């Protein structure tokens, strides 16, 4: 579907994922894609078909600009590279994080198991151990050809894109601003309906929620009329959507503090006391609970950094309390 002059939005299907598809944006003049899709032959043929409708073949592609390194945005690149050596562009942090993640992955089962204990989810240990085999895959780094910095301008035929570094959903996340045409390619930083997953692992030393809220401020007043996201659907009112997202996180932070006030103290216990939009905590499967816990942990670390709460480790479990 054409969404602006020379800009096409491709739906790249995502099997086994409730989001259904990732958007890949095709900038026709410069034979450039913004993001790709999941690593799947069906996704590749869907992409090829949509390129074909624009009179372009996979082998004509010149480059792919990556908003962030999640599998549903970059996984398909290795498949594309079997036909054509496309140039890839991503934020500098993407490269640094790949090395770090490969190190973490070598001990992934051990790290995950330790994290479960620290978060107070030790009762799920037996469940996790059934999946030990799934932690043995070795991630291969994606070759990145050009590293971008905040404020860089990418000059393509007929389109100039300003790079806005928006860490939060991912540390390397960028949005791309087409200033001339008042368009923002928002990746997963701002989606129209769902709130981006902002999470943290116990082996990471970051404050992703603090980063995310700063990154929302960075984009909220941009002069744009059209927002082209990584999933769901296009939208127009950026300030309104950003203020909804601020409210969502404010409300969640209040919920976290209320849980602490009522005596909950471990990450899992606090997560269990929060209202989740997707489904109630009690009926979540283990992996969803774990995602909810890492999201809760990001909120706890944010409050800890603001000195609103205290952290203490007792018998190998992190405990939080109001300051
Ligand atoms: Zn995504």
CATH fourth-tier homologous superfamily of the domain at 2-97 and 138-245: Ribonuclease Z/Hydroxyacylglutathione hydrolase-like
Estimate what percentage of residues fall within beta strands. Answer: 15-25%
CATH architecture of the domain at 2-97 and 138-245: 4-Layer Sandwich
Relative helix content: 25-40%
How many β-strand stretches? 14
Provide the succession of SSEs: EEEEHEHHEHHHEEEEEHEHHHEE
Mean pLDDT comes to 94
Quaternary state of the chains: single chain
CATH topology of the domain at 2-97 and 138-245: Metallo-beta-lactamase, Chain A
| Count of alpha and pi helical runs | 10
Bound molecules: zinc ion
Sheet of most strands: 7 strands, mixed
What structural category characterises the helix and strand content? Answer: alpha/beta
Give the overall shape: globular
Radius of gyration, CA atoms, in whole angstroms: 20 Å
CATH class of the domain at 2-97 and 138-245, anyone? Alpha Beta
Task: Describe the model.
With about 325 residues, the protein is an alpha/beta fold. The protein has a domain at about 1-95 and about 140-245: Metallo-beta-lactamase, Chain A. The protein has 10 helices and 14 strands. Strands 1-2-3-4-5-6-7 form a 7-stranded mixed sheet. A 5-stranded mixed sheet has the order 8-9-10-11-12. α7 runs antiparallel to α8 (about 240-260). The structure holds zinc ion. Zinc ion binds near residues 70 and 188.
